[in-house]
Amino acid sequence: MKSVVSLIAVLSLFVFLSPVFGASVDGSNTGKEATNSDYIAGEKAIKSKDWETAIEKLLRAVDSDPANANAQNYLGYAYRNLGQFNNALKHYNEALRLDPNHRGAHEYLGETYLKLDDIASAKKHLAALDKICASGCEEYDELKEEIEKYEKPKD
Prior knowledge:
Elements: H1 2-17, H2 37-47, H3 51-64, H4 69-81, H5 85-98, H6 103-115, H7 119-132, H8 138-151
Helix pairs in contact: 2-3, 2-4, 3-4, 4-5, 4-6, 5-6, 6-7, 6-8, 7-8
């Protein structure tokens, strides 16, 4: 019983301190991103669907923080929304190189593959999310739904 309590305490401490040390279990913002004005502006532009501004700001954020998987993921998202799929693939893959468990990058990369009629690759990212999200996650559910829509017979 004592070891279970210790394990819970350690895990709670990790969850509490992970933003402070820049760790991210789900591809969410880290403490370092909160101080990067270009990243913040890029994130704001993403929310406003201002893709060109998002790309401009996020490219600057990546220049100052090359290991920022979240900025790479957002760059992929902005490029995908502009229909620039090769650039989107490049940035999603870089996000996954930096953080192989980045849930958002797996979801969005899978959705990009659907736009490119590559269902097999989309399903590979769904399988990756299934492993990463052992108890379920929004990214898995959303990619699964998009795959089901894609596979549904067209009337």
